[in-house]
Design brief:
By secondary structure, the protein is α/β, with parallel strands linked by helices. It has 21 helices and seven strands. The protein folds into two domains: 367 residues, no CATH class; 88 residues. The N and C termini lie far apart (71 Å).
C-alpha cells in the first residue's frame, strides 16, 4: 500500500473513531448529579481564585471532596472557551480522544501491529460503558480516570516486558507520576487498578526487581508527598476535610455507610450483568468467542501476554468493585481493557479465517460481512443515543439558557425551582458572569417583579400561576418561560 493511500485510510479511521466523542458535545444540558456539581465547583473556583478548596454556593463543599485536578482543567477550559457547557466537557472530551489515540499508538509502536489498535479504539467508542452517561461526553471525573488507568496499565505492561534495565526504571517513575495524576482525579478510585497489576507482576516475577529499584521509592516519594501536601493544606484551610474524605471516598463509602452517599445494594454479578446487557454489549460475546479462537491457535507471544495482562487486570478490578458499593459507571476503567482484548482477538480470528480458508470466498465473505454489519449496527446505535435528549425537570433549563441569542441583557430573569438546583445554578452563575441579570430561587415570595420567570416542575408551575398574572412566553422541553401580563 503506498504512503498516500495508507494516510487516507488512517485519516478516515481517526475521523470515524473521533466522531462519537465530539458530535453534539454541547447538545445535552449539564447533567445531574456529578457533572453539575463539578460545573458549579469550577465556576466558583474561577470567580474566587481559590484553587485549593472546592466550593458549592460559595461554601466549602463537604459533599464533593475529591482532589481538584478535573476542576483545575475545567477552570482553564472556561478561561479559553468561556462560561459554557463545552468548556465544562472539553477536558473529558480530550481525555477520551487521548485514550483512543494511546491505544492506537501502543499497538503501532510496542506491538508493531496497528490494525488491532484501530479496531480496539472503534470498539471502545461504540461501547456504552465509554460513550454513555458519566464518562467521555460529560464533565465527570471518569474520562480522566479512564485515561490515567489505561496509561498506568500500559506503562506497567511495557515495564514487565522490557529487557532494557534503564528504560524499565524510567517506566517505574512514569508509573508513579501517572498514579499521582489519577489520584488527584478521583482519589481512592484510582487505586482499584493496582491489585490486578500486582497479580500480574507476581505472575511474571517482576515485583521483586521493581522493589529493588531506587526509582520505585523515588516515585513513591513523589506520590506520597504530593498527596500528603494537598490534604494537609486543605485540612488547614477547612478543618474537618480529612474526616469528610474518609466518609465520602474510603471505607464508609465502600461499605455504603457514608453520610452523603447511599446506594441500592446490588448482586455480586451486578457489573457482569451490566457488561453483558448494555455496558459492553454486544462486544463481550464476540470477545469470548475470539478469545477461544486465540487460545486454540498460535498467536504472537507478545499479543498473548498482553491479553493475559489485560484479562488479569480486568478480572481483579471487577472483583474489587463487586465487593463494595455499586454504581453503574464504576466499571469504566476496564472498558478500554476489554476493548483491546476484543480488538486483538477479532483481528487474529479474521486473519486465521483468511489463512485457513484463503481460497474459499464463501467462508471469508460471510465472516467479513458479519463483522462489518455488527460494527455498523453498534456505531449507528452510538450516534443515535448521542442525539437523544435526556433532560428532566431538574436539568432542563439548560435547553433554553444555552442559547444566549434568545436572552436580553436589559431584561431580568428568575429561575423558580424547588427541586435539585445544581444544574440550574451553573447556568445562573455562568450567565451572571456574562452580564445577564438572572437569579435562582426556591421561595415563591421572592419572585417579585422579573421580566421573565423560568420553571419546570408541575407544582412550581401551579404555585406561580396562582400567585402571579403570567402568560407563557416560550417553552423548550420541560422548561417553561413565563412573562408578566
Amino acid at each position: 500500500m503506498n504512503r498516500l493511500l495508507k494516510f487516507f485510510f488512517v485519516a478516515i479511521a481517526l475521523v470515524i473513531i473521533s466522531f462519537p466523542l465530539v458530535y453534539k458535545i454541547k447538545y445535552r444540558p449539564i447533567q445531574m448529579w456529578d457533572e453539575s456539581r463539578n460545573a458549579v465547583n469550577a465556576i466558583e473556583m474561577l470567580k474566587s481564585e481559590n484553587y485549593l478548596v472546592r466550593t458549592f454556593k460559595n461554601k466549602y463543599d463537604s459533599w464533593e471532596t475529591k482532589p481538584p485536578l478535573l476542576i483545575w482543567l475545567q477552570v482553564a477550559s472556561m478561561k479559553v472557551f468561556g462560561y459554557n457547557v463545552f468548556a465544562i466537557r472539553f477536558p473529558s472530551m480530550v481525555a477520551a480522544l487521548l485514550s483512543c489515540f494511546v491505544i492506537i499508538l501502543f499497538f503501532n509502536y510496542f506491538l508493531k501491529d496497528p490494525v488491532p489498535g484501530f479496531v480496539s479504539a472503534f470498539i471502545l467508542v461504540t461501547s456504552e460503558g465509554f460513550t454513555g452517561a458519566h464518562v467521555s461526553r460529560t464533565g465527570d471525573h471518569d474520562a480522566l480516570l479512564v485515561l490515567f488507568s489505561l496509561l498506568i496499565s500500559l506503562t506497567a505492561f511495557i515495564y514487565f516486558q522490557s529487557a532494557d534495565q534503564y528504560k524499565r526504571e524510567k517506566y517505574i517513575l512514569f508509573f508513579w507520576m501517572l498514579l499521582t495524576l489519577a489520584f488527584f482525579t478521583k482519589s481512592s478510585a484510582s487505586l482499584i487498578i493496582l491489585p490486578g497489576l500486582l497479580a500480574y507482576s507476581l505472575r511474571e516475577k517482576k515485583l521483586i526487581p521493581a522493589l529493588k529499584s531506587k526509582w520505585f521509592y523515588g516515585g513513591l516519594a513523589i506520590f506520597s508527598i504530593s498527596v500528603f501536601s494537598y490534604y494537609f493544606l486543605h485540612e488547614r484551610a477547612t478543618p474537618g476535610y480529612i474526616r469528610d474524605v474518609w466518609q465520602n471516598e474510603f471505607f464508609p463509602r465502600a461499605s455504603n455507610t457514608a453520610t452523603h452517599y447511599q446506594y441500592e445494594e446490588g448482586h455480586w454479578y451486578y457489573y457482569l450483568q451490566n457488561l453483558a446487557t448494555h455496558r459492553f454489549f454486544p462486544w463481550i460475546y464476540l470477545m469470548i468467542i475470539s478469545i477461544i479462537v486465540l487460545s486454540r491457535f498460535r498467536a504472537k507471544t507478545s499479543e498473548k501476554k498482553f491479553v493475559n495482562c489485560l484479562l488479569i487486570n480486568a478480572f481483579c478490578f471487577l472483583i474489587v468493585i463487586s465487593a463494595v458499593t455499586k454504581n453503574e459507571w464504576y466499571d469504566a476503567p476496564i472498558i478500554p481493557m476489554l476493548s483491546m482484548v476484543t480488538g486483538i482477538s477479532i483481528v487474529f480470528g479474521v486473519r486465521q479465517v483468511n489463512v485457513l480458508f484463503g481460497k474459499n470466498r464463501w467462508i471469508k465473505i460471510p465472516v467479513v460481512l458479519i463483522v462489518l454489519a455488527l460494527s455498523y449496527a453498534c456505531y449507528s446505535k452510538t450516534i443515535s443515543s448521542i442525539a437523544w435528549d435526556n433532560s428532566n425537570e431538574d436539568n432542563c433549563f439548560g435547553q433554553y439558557l444555552k442559547n444566549t441569542d434568545e436572552l436580553d441583557k436589559s431584561s431580568t430573569y428568575v429561575l423558580y425551582h424547588t427541586g435539585f438546583d445544581q444544574s440550574p445554578l451553573f447556568y445562573v452563575e455562568a450567565l451572571s458572569l456574562q452580564g445577564y441579570n438572572i437569579a435562582l430561587t426556591n421561595v415563591i415570595d421572592s419572585v417579585k417583579s422579573p421580566d421573565f420567570i423560568l420553571t419546570s416542575r408541575e407544582d412550581d408551575i401551579a404555585l406561580l400561576n396562582a400567585k402571579y398574572p403570567l402568560r407563557e412566553f416560550d417553552r423548550k422541553g420541560k422548561c417553561i418561560v413565563y412573562a408578566r401580563k
